[in-house]
Design goal:
α2 packs antiparallel against α3, α3 runs antiparallel to α5 and α8 runs antiparallel to α10. By secondary structure, the protein is mainly α. The protein has eleven helices and four strands, in the order ααααααββαααααββ. The protein has one domain: Up-down Bundle (Rhopdopsin 7-helix transmembrane proteins), CATH 1.20.1070.10. Strands 1-2 form a two-stranded antiparallel sheet.
């Protein structure tokens, strides 16, 4: 009897040990795998790049454009600034410490998975508006914004419509299996482990970025054709006032295209934190490019006498009479 009891005791210990090992294995397999290898310093940098523009820099730029009579910008530009404020705020939350609840994590993931859609369409709208205005100037056609109210509203609403669609899609996909929602997986922010969802995001944003690139190249071609026609003495030219903002828009569009491409690449094969840090710097680049224009600086530094040409500038057309334009041409793009 003693031998039998001892045998049962040994079997019980073995069974208990086996169950413990099995439980640990299941727990480890259920835990999200950290596929982005980042450091604490990189996390701090990521947060700074997102927080300071969305909470300080961009609101100042937006307020300057909205309330200063010296600064004129098209609604698509204003919309782009608002979009990047929203994107930066969406990254705020439990970025360190214990893993947040699945529900809270899914909320952040849903907001962020809509980011490629809202940012890419907002940038596309600005580039498209710039192209339309420059094309009209190239062919010497009169452009009146009040004749295109429907198109304007479509440009304003489209980014938010795409954002809402991807928010809802991410929430639905994540809610079907909350174990696939985690922060550890992406290190910087919460994410949903779903190939179908990420493939859809990638394809959509890639199409929008390609369309943006097409209009940027087309705009550059128009500039080049105007320049060559000027050399032949058969046409006119763009003034510095007309070129300043379009060139900045082109520069930002190219940078944003590269940044979003890296971001989309990181969704498909995320290991390095560099893509996430690059896209996080987009808002700072936006401030540097558009916040350093003379009219903006003059409005911000109102106590200083910054030299700024607020007079009428001449646009010469050698095959027609000379016409005039003021710097508020910026309000068209």
């Amino acid at each position: 009897m003693a031998g039998t009891s001892k045998s049962f005791s040994n079997v019980n210990k073995v069974s208990t040990h086996s169950l413990t090992v099995l439980d640990v294995t299941v727990t480890e397999s259920a835990m999200p795998m950290n596929i982005v290898h980042g450091t604490h310093a990189e996390l701090v940098l990521f947060l700074v790049l997102n927080m300071w523009p969305s909470h300080f820099g961009l609101p100042i730029l937006l307020s300057t454009v909205l309330f200063s009579k010296r600064v004129q910008r098209h609604p698509t530009f204003i919309n782009l600034v608002i979009v990047f404020i929203i994107v930066g705020i969406a990254y705020a939350g439990k970025t360190s410490g214990p893993e947040p609840s699945h529900t809270l994590c899914l909320v952040q993931a849903s907001l962020l998975y809509g980011m490629p859609g809202i940012a890419s369409i907002a940038a596309f709208s600005l580039v498209l508006q710039m192209f339309i205005v420059i094309r009209a100037a190239f062919y010497k056609q009169e452009y009146r914004e009040q004749d295109h109210v429907v198109r304007l509203w479509m440009m304003i609403i489209a980014p938010y419509a795409a954002w809402i669609v991807f928010i809802v899609a991410t929430a639905l996909v994540g809610s079907t299996d909350l174990t696939k929602v985690s922060r550890d997986r992406r290190f910087f922010y919460c994410s949903v482990d779903s190939n179908n969802l990420t493939d859809t995001l990638t394809i959509f944003a890639a199409i929008v970025l390609f369309a943006t690139l097409v209009f940027e190249v087309w705009t550059i071609v128009l500039f080049y054709r105007r320049w060559t026609s000027l050399e032949r003495g058969s046409s006119g030219m763009f003034t510095a006032a007309e070129l300043n903002l379009p060139l900045r828009i082109l520069a930002f569009g190219i940078y944003l295209g590269i940044a979003l491409s890296l971001s989309l690449l990181s969704i498909k094969s995320p290991e390095s934190p560099i893509p996430d840090l690059t896209i996080a710097s987009a808002a700072t680049v936006l401030i540097v490019i558009f916040g350093t224009q003379r009219d903006v600086l003059r409005a911000l530094c109102f106590w200083k006498d910054i030299e700024f040409k607020n007079t009428v500038e001449t646009v010469e057309f050698r095959d027609t009479a000379s016409v005039t334009k003021t710097p508020d041409v910026y309000k068209n793009y």
